[in-house]
Amino acid sequence: MVWKPHVTVAAIIEREQRFLLVEETTPYGLQFNQPAGHLEEHEDLITAIKREVLEETAWHFTPEYITGVHLWRRNPNSQTFVRFCFVGQCYDFQPTQALDAGIIATHWLTRDEIAIKPLRSPLVLTSVDEYLSGQHYPLSLLKSFLDYA
Questions:
Q1: How does strand 103-109 pair with strand 80-91?
Q2: CATH number of residue 90's parent domain
Q3: Is 71 part of a structural domain of the chain?
């Protein structure tokens, strides 16, 4: 079997010291996460994060910068993830749009409220703390060479 890490994207969206999180069903029960998901074939990272935020929150999203890139595995027998965490703004809410399967609700939570919730991974709070500490990397770090000969 060939080992491959899963590439995922996540979004930090903050308004008035509250962060947009999704409450979702997981194999570990209800948990909270940033809007996030997997990179799909033929998709670049910017397209992926815009799509995931829209599918999971019904908000359109404009990424402004990256706050972190993380390699994470729950335990030695778990899948490995490479997670790109974007910071940006949301706009143009689509209230009639159905959310992705498994998404129960969206919530605007403070950092302290997030810290006491059951989180999908430790990267949820880590990413918020990196954002709050000012970690800021330009989107120009990302280069896509899809279908490039």
A1: unpaired
A2: 3.90.79.10
A3: yes
What range defines the domain where residue 33 resides?
7-141
pLDDT of amino acid 72: 96
The pair of structure tokens assigned to 111 is 């950092």
Pick from 16, 20, 78: nearest CA to 49? 20
Count how many domains the chain has.
Answer: 1
| Beta pairing, strands 60-73 & 80-91 | antiparallel
Tens of pLDDT along 70-89? 999 999 999 999 999 999 99
Write out 108-148 in H/E/C secondary structure: EECHHHHHCCCECCCHHHHHHHHHHCCCCEEHHHCCCCCCC
Mean pLDDT of 119-132: 97
pLDDT of 149: 63
Segment among 2-6, 15-19, 28-32 with least mean pLDDT: 2-6
- Pairwise CA distance, residues 72 & 123, whole Å: 8
